[in-house]
Specification:
Strand content: 35-45%
Radius of gyration: 15 Å
Distance between the termini: 33 Å
CATH class: Mainly Beta
Structural class: mainly beta
Number of strands: 12
Helix content: under 10%
């Protein structure tokens, strides 16, 4: 797949274009992601920074977490769009819910499952990862 992938925030003030291939697509269950999105988990697609072009970047508000990660969201509508973490300095993780065209891969795993919401049960057969890194194999 070489076609560009498009997305935007809820109000359309921030639009983005992604150039495949993505590095991964996974469901993250860490508490930081759950709180930032107000959901049981968030699905991210990872891209190299140079594969992400943002139109309306001046409308982004950035928040640095206690782990040193940066979350970027639309300053107008509040849509959470991007995650950039110190463990992956050359990547941008894009919230899949804001992608409007097909991604080059489906979600392939659940990460940080040790931190998942108690009230949510994972019901698929995707691989599960956790531990201190969030990506250690789980039985």
């Amino acid at each position: 797949m070489s076609e560009r992938i498009h997305g935007a925030c809820s109000c359309g003030s921030v639009r983005f274009e992604l150039t495949p291939p993505s590095k991964f697509c996974a469901h993250c269950h860490c508490q930081n992601c759950r709180q930032a999105h107000g959901a049981a988990f968030v699905t991210y697609a990872g891209f190299k920074k140079e594969q992400v072009v943002v139109d309306g970047a001046e409308k982004l508000v950035r928040y640095e977490t206690d782990t040193g990660a940066t979350r970027s969201f639309c300053g107008r509508c509040g849509s959470t769009l991007f995650y950039e973490g110190p463990r992956w300095p050359d990547e941008v993780h894009v919230a899949l819910a804001n992608v409007s065209s097909p991604l080059d891969r489906p979600p392939g795993a659940h990460v940080y499952v040790d931190h998942k919401a108690e009230w949510f049960e994972i019901g698929d057969s995707l691989p599960r990862y956790g531990g201190t890194t969030g990506v250690d194999p789980k039985p």
